[in-house]
Amino acid sequence: MIYPLAFGFAHSECTESWTWFLKQLRNVIQYPERVMLVSDRHAGIFAGMEAIFPDAAHGVCAYHLSQNLKKFCRQRDDVIKLYFRATYLYRVEEFNCEMAELKATHRKVYDELLEALQKYSRAFDMKQL
Q: MULE transposase domain: which residues (predicted)?
């Protein structure tokens, strides 16, 4: 089953609220060990996921990661394009080629993104499940 969206109402976006929300979500998911949760890297979400869904695959939303990258690399459209190309590739070999180009273009961004993209790109996401 796929649960593309769920809603919960809480007082604030904090670890306690996210943990409560994820507990409620776990109660309705039939096979929680086969879940992949994608978030915007909020610390409270990650803490809740680790506590409530420790065996689930955890991902980061490519859009939110790109927004952080845009703040970090202002005026570097070439870097943003390389990021998106690498993120949306399905084959590891193609991903590695794009990352090599990113490394040659902007080493600091490459170093920051390598771990995140290996964990959250399409080329690697099915290997986590």
A: 2-68
Are residues 66 and 19 both part of a single domain?
A: no
> What stretches of 53-106 show up as alpha helix (H) in DSSP?
62-72, 77-87, 92-105
Q: Which two tokens stand for residue 8?
A: 């919960």
Question: Cα separation of 24 and 102, whole Å?
Answer: 40
Picking from 27, 60, 93, the residue at the C-terminal end of a domain is 60
CA 29, chain centre distance (Å): 21
Q: Is the pTM of this model over 0.70?
A: no
User: Tens of pLDDT along 20-34?
Assistant: 999 998 988 877 777
State whether residue 41 is helix, strand or coil.
coil
Q: Residue 54: which H helix or E strand, with range?
A: none
Distance CA 63, CA 84 (A): 9
For residue 65, give the nearest of 93, 86, 48 by alpha carbon.
86
| Strand blocks (E) in the chain | 36-39, 57-60
